[in-house]
Amino acid sequence: MSGFLGIDWTHPSSIGYPVIFGGVLLGSIVPVVPTGAVVGAGAAIAVSGGDLNLVLVVVVSTVGALIGDLVTFGAGRGGRGTLVRFFERRQSQEKLAGAREKFVERGWLLVVIGRMVPAGRIPVLLAAGALDYPWRRLVLAASGACLLWAVAYALLGVVSGGLFDNPLVATVIATFLILIVTLVVGLVGRRREKAREHARTH
User: Fold this and answer.
1) C-alpha distance from residue 88 to each of 7, 93, 97, 160, 201 (Å)
2) How far is Cα 13 from Cα 26, in angstroms, rounded to an integer?
3) 150 by DSSP, 3-state: which?
4) By Cβ atoms counted within 10 A, which residue in 60, 95, 170, 188 is the most buried?
5) CB count in 10 Å sphere of residue 85
6) Contact present, 29 and 68 (Cβ < 8 Å)
């Protein structure tokens, strides 16, 4: 099947696209794979002479992330009775109603932020499903969010790939860099959340 999408599928490097897609898809459903590192590693290989196409790396990553997000959202819709009861036990009716209003008014923004913030995506998508956020709006918001996410992590990979000509070294550096960035963003997010909780209680 050589030549499809401009890829020589007989070349060993072509396995990189299924690996990227599978890694991002799996990590988007079950958070056991650092999906940002997968994208960054693919981008680093692409720009350091590893025979991958950077644009295809972004496209494959976006599609894998989108499918994973839709599966997660679908799980929230399918189990919304249980999830709503879960939220109700932990939130007042006023806060639950406020959450619904937020999703109606700026659900797309919550979806985008959830995708970009570590550990924020799954709670947002499950909440959106439980609160009956429309599929059509979710697909549009998630598509844009996944593309933005893929481009952002690919750029981190491009930086390391541009500094190192060896694909293996570039991949290792990109993975390390992305894990550090993810850790820092997560810590900042948790500190901001603690600060908001402290402000609400005082």
Assistant:
1) 51, 7, 10, 46, 20
2) 21
3) helix
4) 170
5) 11
6) yes
What pLDDT digit, counting tens, does each position of 13-55 carry?
667 899 999 999 998 888 777 888 889 888 888 887 767 889 9
Distance CA(152)–CA(156), nearest Å, equals 7
Instruction: Tell me how far apart the alpha carbons of residues 2 and 5 are, in angstroms, rounded to a whole number.
Output: 9
Q: CA distances (Å), 5 to each of 1, 2, 18, 53, 65, in order?
A: 10, 9, 14, 11, 20
Q: State both tokens at 181.
A: 């960035």
Token duo for residue 166: 């060896």
Neighbours of 183 (CB within 10 A): 11
Q: State the pTM of this model.
A: 0.72
Owner of token pair 């901001």: 192
Whose tokens are 């570590």? That residue is 118
Among 178, 4, 142, 120, smallest CA distance to 69 is for 142
